Amino acid sequence: MDWLKGKPSKPLAPGGEQAMPGGARDIYAPLRELIFADESLEGVARFVLEQEASGTEAKEVWKRLAKVAAQVAQGERRPAIEELYRLLEDEGEDARSCFQFWNYLRQLGEQPGPAVATRVLGLVIEHSRHGGPEILSAYWDGNARLMDASGDFRMFSDPAPFMVAAVRRWLRVCRPLAEGVVPMSGPRPAPPSGSRCRITVLTPGGLRTCEGEWDALWADALCGPVMEMAGTLTERLVAVLEDNGTWRSGVVPLSRSGGRGTGSSRVH
Fold first, then answer.
1. Which of 118, 159, 111, 137 lies closest to 265 in space, CA to CA?
2. Which residues contact 46 (CB under 8 A, 6 or more apart)?
3. pLDDT, tens digit, for every residue of 119-172?
4. DSSP conformation letters of 69-97
5. What is the pTM of this model?
6. Confidence of residue 27 (pLDDT cuts 50, 70, 90)
7. Closest Cα to residue 45, out of 29, 63, 71?
8. Which CATH topology does 117-242 take?
9. What is the domain partition of the chain in residue ranges?
């Protein structure tokens, strides 16, 4: 898993959102929805109905989102907005959920204030340099996801406090990019192909994205530090797998150098 190691050799090439070649279907689209936390309200409502039909009790947060979906469908915009703000308070320690709630709030015309809009809730890096799509994602609450070119997908959940602190220290590297790039407008594009790579920072204001050739991103002032940090994070995740450790225990804590405490556990 050396996919984030490389040396810059070219200036940043013009960006551009790149569709999959030949209009090919992205078989990992449902997985990407989970990673980017941009499932539609309608999709959440369908999921809750399917759970109930199968006799499985859906999580309370999903049932509340299904209620929001019903309110939106009935034109009850204000109650839906109020419930989403309550969800932000109730689920404030879950970074993916906070980003998802802000997605819905923006769709209903709500916008975070300037001090909140650029907060880093998560990072996703995508590329296909080794023949298949590879994804690294990490979130402010310490959770992470990793998929290699073979399609092997790993989730790192329920992190120990020292791992939360480490992930937050790494994600702070994304702040200049989050503050220097305007949120993406329109739907999230198809994954990059060929030698292209895409960096996406999840913020309450939306997705902040940079895409370009691999070496060009390494050479860019905003993207280069993020690429380097992501390499360190990837090595850490792979070490957990190779040592048969877990995110919660059995992993030697990282050095505390370079960071001071974690502050509040709330992420929104």
1. 159
2. none
3. 999 999 999 888 889 999 999 999 999 998 888 889 998 888 888 999 999 999
4. HHHHHTT-HHHHHHHHHHHHHHTTT-HHH
5. 0.82
6. confident
7. 63
8. Mago nashi protein (3.30.1560)
9. 41-110, 117-242
